[in-house]
Amino acid sequence: MKKFPFIFLVFLMLLSCKQEADLRYFAPSVEFASAQYELDLEKGSFIDVAVELSRPASTPLQMDLVFSGTLQEGVNYTASTKKVSFDAGASSAVIRLVLRPNTIMDAESTIDITFVPGDYYAVNPNLHYKTSVLVKKAFDKPVLKWVAATTEIVSNPYLEESVAVSIQSDIPTRKDTPVRLSMSSLKLGVDILLNGTTQTECVIPAGQSRVDVTLKVAFKDISGYSKQGVLSIASSADYIVSGSAGRLNVRLSDPVVDFSKLLRTAALQSGDGYQVRQAFKTRDNTWDGSTTVDLGVSSTGSNYLRNYRNMYDHPSFSCRANSATSQLLRMSELFPNYLYPNPTAILDYGNDQGHRQFSPADSVFRFVPLPDNPQKGVVLLRKPRTFRAYIGSYAAWQDKTSGENAWIPDSRATGGNIDASTNAAITGTITLVLEKVEGTFDFSNSSEPVILSAWFSSPSDQFMAGFDKEKYAVEQEGGLWKVQYKLWPR
């Protein structure tokens, strides 16, 4: 009788140690047996695409497929199924593709198949979750395709860039073969010029297997412009187009530049624009000086900058005067013999020589950004700009016979418009032509955001006379003076 409780206890312990069944479901991964298949229609008109599971299906499975590519399902080929089915215990299946060769007019075509994700199986991006079938067909006619350095031409239309490409035939042509080109969205002859002309056709000479073509992007000055298209070899009875190789993607883009990294500190006395510092490059590759200029965007959304002549009612003189030094490209310093204390000097409304400057100009700098990175690009000047300054007797301009500097009542008389002045101290003008600008900008580089080379000319015999050519990196090129600058925010 005493053994019964012990036996009963052991029985209970055995019951408590019994392992419960694992009812969790582990979804198998699905993939194609290969990421790439190839079918030569001379050798057959069908192909089997294998599908595999990472483990046998525990229950019946079905998964949807997406068909794409250059061939059209139901027109150029049929698929044995648009869904892959697995019985319980199965781990492989086959999709048969049956081609219709007579409907295929390209030497190379593709059929792409992709799995649609589901709840009871996993589509792993690290496996062959999609596959492509390359379909080849031989023709008696020449098969044409593009030959280019890249599959896409990307350019900023402001630059009018040219790209060398070729149309290549798999066999030499028996006769002169005209090849017509067509373009979607963009217009051939308007957006893209063929060999510099508006023609839409080129010719592969008899006995040749290629024709070289220069595609030139037509000029457009539209900040924010963005458009793309496909340049295609059009079908013809004289040749066959080689599928996707007969199409060339073209993308033109001129993004709007964000100038906030450069235009950071507002002009003084509530003037227009932002203060930007400018330095000359020296011959030992350093930067010298930091004369400011007030710059701003020419108009909303524009990739042009302009400079300003900011004047305000000076409280000490009760007249209009320049609010601060705002000397674009430090132009006055290119005429050292017209700076104080020289008897003949640049005259302007301001209390010292630093406030006397050349006339301003709109749209003086054109920033041309990279199509995919508006923070970087080049700076250009499309046409020369002429700047003017007044010169005369510095002593007469500062003369205080009336009790105050002569320029002060003159500014009151003209309302600050020196172009309207008839003051006897002004005896002439000098002009400076900004002939060309080439530079780069990189607003991710805080130390050198804008680097420029500027080429100048002037009819004045005082231009660059006395300028320290030993210190600064200046030189003459084709009758012009080249000066190098750095611009950065104040």
Major pleated sheet: 8 strands, antiparallel, barrel
Spatial shape: elongated
Query: Quick check: average pLDDT?
Result: 92
User: What Rg, in angstroms, do the CA atoms define?
Assistant: 38 Å
* Structural class based on helices, strands and sheet pairing: mainly beta
Query: In percent, how helical is the residue content?
Result: under 10%
Briefly characterize the structure:
The chain is mainly β and 490 residues long. Helices cover 6% and strands 44% of the residues.
Strand-helix topology:
Elements: H1 3-16, E1 29-32, E2 36-40, E3 46-53, E4 61-69, E5 77-79, E6 83-86, E7 92-99, E8 108-115, E9 122-123, E10 130-136, E11 143-147, E12 152-155, E13 162-169, E14 177-183, E15 192-194, E16 201-204, E17 210-217, E18 225-233, E19 240-241, E20 247-254, E21 265-266, E22 274-281, E23 287-297, E24 304-307, E25 311-314, E26 319-322, E27 344-347, E28 365-370, E29 373-380, E30 385-393, H2 394-398, H3 407-414, E31 426-442, E32 450-457, E33 475-477, E34 480-489
Parallel strand pairs: 1-9, 2-10, 11-19, 12-20
Antiparallel strand pairs: 1-3, 3-7, 4-6, 4-8, 5-7, 8-10, 11-13, 13-17, 14-16, 14-18, 15-17, 18-20, 21-22, 22-23, 22-34, 23-24, 24-28, 25-26, 27-30, 28-29, 29-31, 30-31, 31-32, 32-34, 33-34
Describe this structure in words.
The protein has 3 helices and 34 strands. The chain has an 8-stranded antiparallel β-barrel with strand order 22-23-24-28-29-31-32-34. Strands 5-7-3-1-9 form a 5-stranded mixed β-sheet, with no helix packed on it. The protein is elongated and about 110 Å long. The longest helix is centred in the N-terminal third of the chain and has 14 residues, at 3-16. The chain is mostly beta strands and 490 residues long. The chain has helices spanning 3-16, 394-398, 407-414; strands at residues 29-32, 36-40, 46-53, 61-69, 77-79, 83-86, 92-99, 108-115, 122-123, 130-136, 143-147, 152-155, 162-169, 177-183, 192-194, 201-204, 210-217, 225-233, 240-241, 247-254, 265-266, 274-281, 287-297, 304-307, 311-314, 319-322, 344-347, 365-370, 373-380, 385-393, 426-442, 450-457, 475-477, 480-489. 6% of the residues lie in helices and 44% in strands.
